[in-house]
């Protein structure tokens, strides 16, 4: 996985979640708090999720084969989607079930200092993990808002870790609130309510992750800035006069396919056109280094024929409009 994949943030989150999961489970054994059990399963699920992200990054580095000529870059999207499934099923649904059972059969929290102490420790550890994810993300985020970064990022790892860490922090606060109210009132129902809130939170985060990674799995075009750079790089004003139609597709977070029909002069020789295409490919790779697979088809521009192409709603000769997910 490249540096842009956020390996440091994933490893930091994995280390924090393993330690927190063990501490929470010990606290559950002493206190019998359903919030602590739900949170221990939550941290265990998060640890598994980070392992999945690391595995996906490793598998994505495999070389292309005849059966998979464009490589395995999308493995990272597949494993990110699996994360959302694990978070929904193992984390969210289990917390809902445990919360329901605790509300149905409430009991007082024993050895209150265990869950309170572990939750405070967990909040501190998760804060450091979240801080690492924010620092790693800021390198790529630029001027985008956090919502735009999560929605438009082509590398799934950092958005996943960010949402998981945010969910973990909010979940810990909910667990602390549930345990605290149960201790203050002496009513274990509050512990169950806190557990239910954790379950709802995890399911909402899982749905957001599933929606975002689904779009990546289906195949997304390059961002508008990259599309403009590619379109500008193709045209040399001499042999290549315009882009008639263009399609871009992310084969992975750091690999882009570019396919375009380009207009050339009607009296150009085959040698001149071949040289112009080679030069255009070189300019594209210089302008957008992740554009690694490029197919350029020369044609004689006709406004009537261009209107029949795949970009009927686009300005004739202009690049394909794109929209991020």
TrEMBL record:
<keyword id="KW-0472">Membrane</keyword>
<keyword id="KW-0812">Transmembrane</keyword>
<dbReference type="GO" id="GO:0016020">
    <property type="term" value="C:membrane"/>
</dbReference>
<feature type="transmembrane region" description="Helical">
    <location>
        <begin position="6"/>
        <end position="30"/>
    </location>
</feature>
<dbReference type="InterPro" id="IPR040177">
    <property type="entry name" value="SLC30A9"/>
</dbReference>
<feature type="transmembrane region" description="Helical">
    <location>
        <begin position="192"/>
        <end position="211"/>
    </location>
</feature>
<protein>
    <submittedName>
        <fullName>Transporter</fullName>
    </submittedName>
</protein>
<dbReference type="Pfam" id="PF01545">
    <property type="entry name" value="Cation_efflux"/>
</dbReference>
<dbReference type="GO" id="GO:0008324">
    <property type="term" value="F:monoatomic cation transmembrane transporter activity"/>
</dbReference>
<dbReference type="InterPro" id="IPR058533">
    <property type="entry name" value="Cation_efflux_TM"/>
</dbReference>
<feature type="domain" description="Cation efflux protein transmembrane">
    <location>
        <begin position="11"/>
        <end position="218"/>
    </location>
</feature>
<feature type="transmembrane region" description="Helical">
    <location>
        <begin position="77"/>
        <end position="97"/>
    </location>
</feature>
<keyword id="KW-1133">Transmembrane helix</keyword>
<dbReference type="InterPro" id="IPR002524">
    <property type="entry name" value="Cation_efflux"/>
</dbReference>
<dbReference type="InterPro" id="IPR027469">
    <property type="entry name" value="Cation_efflux_TMD_sf"/>
</dbReference>
<feature type="region of interest" description="Disordered">
    <location>
        <begin position="305"/>
        <end position="325"/>
    </location>
</feature>
<keyword id="KW-0813">Transport</keyword>
<feature type="transmembrane region" description="Helical">
    <location>
        <begin position="166"/>
        <end position="186"/>
    </location>
</feature>
<dbReference type="InterPro" id="IPR036837">
    <property type="entry name" value="Cation_efflux_CTD_sf"/>
</dbReference>
<dbReference type="GO" id="GO:0006829">
    <property type="term" value="P:zinc ion transport"/>
</dbReference>
<feature type="transmembrane region" description="Helical">
    <location>
        <begin position="112"/>
        <end position="134"/>
    </location>
</feature>
<feature type="compositionally biased region" description="Basic and acidic residues">
    <location>
        <begin position="305"/>
        <end position="314"/>
    </location>
</feature>
